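Now read the record:
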Amino acid sequence: MSNPQRPAVTDQVTAGPGGAMTVEVGVITGDLMVRTADTGQGTATISVQYAGADEWYELQGSPVPLPADSLATVHRAVVEAIRAGGATCVPSPGRT
């Protein structure tokens, strides 16, 4: 999912009610790891996994456009959206 040579940011978050919507398995809930990775092609991939698990899932709406020097900003918006819950997908620009 992410290229080890590319920048990535990872954090743990507890998903709010309704969890996070993934492409592969639908909604996941509970304690999650969130990874936002620069693809090197002007986009970022957003992946989630159950904390302590091995398998990563793509968050619905990923990949997203990545303006220059904004990886941390995109990541923070995604983490806050997952914390809020509601079957979170990747938030639209300007909306958290």
About this structure: The two ends are 24 Å apart (CA to CA). The chain has a mean pLDDT of 89. Strands lie at 8-14, 20-22, 26-28, 31-38, 43-50, 57-58, 64-65. The first strand starts at residue 8 and ends at 14.
